[in-house]
Amino acid sequence: MAIIEREYIVDLSQIGNSNLLTNHGILELLESIACYHSNLVHLGINEINETGFTWMLLHWKVKVFKRVLYGDSITVKTWAGYANKFYTLRDFEIYDKERKFNLYCKF
Asked: What is the C-alpha separation between 7 and 28, in angstroms, rounded?
């Protein structure tokens, strides 16, 4: 099980009135790293016509421990868990710049 890790900077489109990362912003980050992981294993957006495979984030359970501010550096991790013919479970974690755990998500 490979763990994929990427650094991001919290962007303007990902925050709310309080300048904190919103739920929508969190899902945008999770989608971004899931796409990145799919590309690494040649099942990404560019390969859909060749492979006939696609994916979607269908169901999620997110636990947020702390929200980060606009401009903060964060690390997002993901890995695939159980897989069968029809679906794969995927886990995510988000850490702040001090590597403190901020979020856990299970799809």
From this structure: 14
Q: Locate tokens 């590309």: which residue?
A: 39
Structural domain 4-106, CATH architecture? Roll (3.10)
Helix, strand, or coil (residue 25): helix
Residue 18: partners with Cβ closer than 8 Å, 6 or more residues away: none
Tell me the pLDDT tens digit for each residue of 57-101.
Answer: 777 888 888 899 999 999 999 998 888 877 888 899 999 888 777
- Asked whether 29 and 80 are in contact (CB, 8 A), the reply is no
Q: pTM for this one?
A: 0.84
Question: Please, are residues 92 and 80 in contact by the beta-carbon 8 Å criterion?
Answer: no
Q: Of how many residues is the chain composed?
A: 107
Task: Answer yes or no: are the C-beta atoms of 75 and 99 closer than 8 Å.
Answer: yes
Phi and psi angles of residue 2, each rounded to the nearest 5 degrees, phi first: -85, 135
Domain ranges across the chain:
4-106
Q: Residue type at 3?
A: I
Residues 64, 72: Cα–Cα separation, whole Å: 16
